[in-house]
Amino acid sequence: MKYLFSSIMIVCLCLIACDVREDAVGSYQNIMVLVDAGEADILAPRLSEALEVEIITPRAETIFTLNYVDSTKIDRMKIARTSIIAASLESPGQAGRFIRGSLSPEALRAVEGGEWIIAKKDLWANGQLTVILAAPTVEALEARIFLGAEELFRLVNNSVNERHGEWLFGRVFTEGEKIALQDSIAGEYGWAIRIPRYWDWEKGSYEERFLWLRALEPERWIFVWWTPLDSSMDFSVERWQHVRDSLCEIYYEGDIVSAKFEPETTGVMLGNRPAVQIRALWENPHTLLGGPIISYVLSDPMTNRLFIIDGAVFAPAVKKMPYLRQVEIVCRSFRADVPKFYEERKERGK
Asked: For 299-350, what is each residue's pLDDT tens digit?
């Protein structure tokens, strides 16, 4: 479904925003939410199911945390990186009044016709996403959130990745992403990946069909491995685990995919190619250490290669999700199509 963006928002949304906008602040994981009290018991559980997705790191963490605000805390939404306003068109509360007063007649007709997600970038602050969720009745909105949970999560998660990526690859204290190293990898290996300022090449070679990138404090690492693509190859999760464990026996001091957590798979896009995302845990049976994995399996007929782009985190005593998101962003910058990689770089103005 295509989301409704700012072209359908009426002038009052612009009037709410400041003429001179500051940058949004706070955690990328926290989402400020405004829901009317009369509808909260119905909508809040559905929003939690859609966005407070739990992952094991091995401690249970949620990808996002919802923080509900009322009229006394509404200013927090204006500086938050991500916020959601959810209400039915018939709700008499603050969220309902905001939505009815903020949408153009065209937008209101679209909501009555079945559209329910309206996304607005930089409404009150730079680097901000505000999402309006609306339907004619609260029962209809509950159903739309339930049925469209993956769609809502994908919208918010992709937006957070995009905005967090701008910081991750941005220039800080004169140092930016490592363009020269990216070019060297693209020229030698025949594929490309963006490398943040504090990441480095650790080991690997073209002959080994393996490359390891690493960042410290806390430890985050990514490897890329590939093999010739065989149309008869059945690349299951079990096959992925076998390949990963075999590589880690050589390069990672014997790390293995933990049997304590069943790997979870999701279909995603890497650039313009479909891929399988795998979330799992790693552990080392010798050191008793461990942490989260986010891995991608990509078949690329153009280069006749099957790739594994695999990221992991070791961050004891702290939350892993913020660092795991950085690993995800770097993994998702992978492109088997090198000309496409350079085309995207040119579009970014680098």
From this structure: 999 999 999 999 999 999 899 999 999 999 999 999 999 999 999 999 988 6
Query: How many residues appear in the chain?
Result: 350
Query: Could you tell me the domains of the chain?
Result: 6-168 (3.30.379), 179-348 (3.40.1000.10)
Place of tokens 């809040």: 44
- Shortest CA distance to 83 belongs to which of 21, 162, 160, 165? 160
The Cα-based distances of 169 to 17, 125, 176, 328 in angstroms read: 28, 21, 6, 13
Number of helical (H) and strand (E) elements in the chain, helices listed first: 11, 15
What residues have CB less than 8 Å from 208, skipping those under 6 apart? Answer: none
DSSP state of 164: H
Let me know: does 312 contact 330? Beta carbons within 8 Å: no
Whether the CA torsion 197, 296, 315, 129 is positive or negative: it is positive
Distance CA 240, CA 253 (A): 18
Contact 254, 288 (CB under 8 A): no
Indicate the SS3 state at residue 276.
strand
Q: Is the pTM of this model over 0.85?
A: yes
Angle between helices 37-51 and 138-147 (to 10 degrees): 10
Residue carrying structure tokens 């989402």: 31
Q: Let me know the angle formed at the C-alpha of 341 by 28 and 281, rounded to the nearest 5 degrees.
A: 50
